[in-house]
User: Fold these one by one.
Assistant:
Number 1:
Amino acid sequence: MAHGLKNLFAGRQRRAADDFDKTIVNILSPYRLKDLCPPMSDAANVREQPLGEQQFKIRLAQTDAVRSAATMLVQKRYAWRGYKAGEIRKEPNRITLLAHLGDQIVGSLNIGYDSAEGLCADERYREEIDALRAQGRSVGEITKLAIDENKGNKQVLAGMINIAYLYGLIHGVTDAVIEVTPRHSPFYERMLDFKQIAGERYYEASSTNVVLMHIKLEHITERIRAVGGKGAATKERSIYPYFFAPGDQGGIMRRLQGESA
C-alpha cells in the first residue's frame, strides 16, 4: 500500500506543507479519553466517557497565533506532569498538526523531517539515529505531542498519527522515532507498536529523562491494511483500528497535496 500511495505523486510538483490552509479530515466521535496526552496515562487507567457526537477537525498550524495557542496546550499538559516544553515555532522541515473541537485546540503534534540540521533527538541519540541513516533509512520524528485530557480521544490521537504517517510517506520517510519518558514507553509499545532502541538520557529542555522509541513506516502500513477503520469491533488494545480505512488513505494523501480527490 505504501508503494502505491507514493506512486500517486510521481512526477508531480510538491507544494509546501504550510500552503495547505483547509481542514485535512473531520473525525466524528461520541467519546472523550481521559488523560490521553504525553505525558500519557497507562492504558489500563484510561477511561472513555460518552459525550454525544462531536466533530473534530485536523488542521495544519498556519499562523504564529495558532502556534502560540498550541504551545499553551503542550506546556499545560507537560507542566501537569512536572515537565517543560518549549515554544512551537515555524521552522524548516517541521509541520505542526492540530486537532480542533469548534474553535478550541484539543490536540497538537510536531512532525520533523531529517535535514542538514538534523533532528531534535540527535541531541541525545545521534549515534542511534546515525545507525539508521547508515542503513539508508530516512528518519522522521514526532515531538510535542499533547491531547487535552477532557476533550481529546483515541480517534483524535489515531487520526493525528495517521496524518503524520501520510506526511512521512510524502516526504520519503521510512522510519519514525519519538522520545518519551520511561514510564510512558509501554503505552507507545502497546498502542502503536513502537520499540525502544536506546536507554535513558537526560532531556535538559524538558527537565526529565527520556528513552528513544522507533517504528518503521512499513509496519504502520501493514497495521492499517489489517485493521485500519475497523474501530472497537477488533477488540485489540492498539489504536490502529481507529486509523482511517485503507481505502481512504490515498484520498487523504491527495488532500495533503492540495489536490482534489
Note: The domain at 2-256 is CATH 3.40.630.30 (Aminopeptidase).
Number 2:
Amino acid sequence: MRRLKKKIYLGLCATTFIALAAVRHTFPAVMGEEAKDTLVVKEEAPEVKEETPVAKEETKEPEKPIETVKPVAETANRVRRAEKKHRIRGVHDFNACFPDVQDVQIVSARKWGVRPVRDREQAEQRKQELVFVGSNPYFVIDKGMSHSIPYLVPRAADLLERIGRNFVDSLYVKDVPFHRIIVTSVLRTEADVERLKRTNPNVSTESCHRFGTTFDIAYNRYNTVCPPGEFRREVRNDSLKYVLSEVLRDLRADGRCHVKYEVKQGCFHITTR
C-alpha cells in the first residue's frame, strides 16, 4: 500500500514538473523577473556582420592638357633671329656694289629715254613723253635743285617711286623713324648742261640726265618727317645711308636699275633699265 502511494506521488510530481515546463515554454511571461533576466542574458545577440570597408574610388580629375613650355634658350634664339632679320646691315663695299659707270648707264639711257630737251619751255611741250615728278610721301625734290627740272620718262618715274616706297618700308620693319629720300638731280636740258660746264669743266655732254632716265639721290642728308610738337629720336645719316643702300642693291640685283656710287657729289647716280 505504501509502495502504491509512493508511485502515485512520484507520478504526480513528474506530471506537475512536465506541466510546469510546458507552461514555461509556452508562456514565458509567467516566469519570474529573475528568470526573465537570465533568459534575456542567455538570448543570443543578433550577429553583427562586420562590413568590409569598401575602397572608395578615387575621383580622378580630368587631365589638363600639358602646356608646352619652350625653353628660355630657344625663345632667346628666336628673338635674336628676328632681330638679325631686321637689322641694318648695309652693303660690304659701296664702290664694289654700285660700279655702274657712265659707259654702262648711257646704253640704257639711250634705249629708254627721250631725245634731249633743248630748254625748260620745250620740256613743258613734251608732256606726252615726260611726266612731272614732285615731292610726295616717299621722296622730296631738293629745293636747291637749279641745274635740272623734275621730269622723267614714265619708266624712270616708277623706279623713283619704287625706291622711295621700299626705303620707307625698310625703315618701318627696322624700327627707324620715318624719313624721306632727297632727289638732287633729274632731267637736264641742253641749256642746263651748258651752264654746268661753266662751273664744272668735267661735266659730260653725253650725260644720262639728258634723256629723262636718270636721277640722283643724296645719301648724306634726308628729310625727317615729324608732326609738330612730337618728339622724334635722331637717326644718324650713316644709318639711313645703309638702309638706302640695301634697297638699291636689291633693285639692282633684280635688273631694275644701274647704280653708281658718287663720292664727290654725295649721291647715288641711278638710271632705269
Note: The domain at 89-272 is CATH 3.30.1380 (Muramoyl-pentapeptide Carboxypeptidase; domain 2).
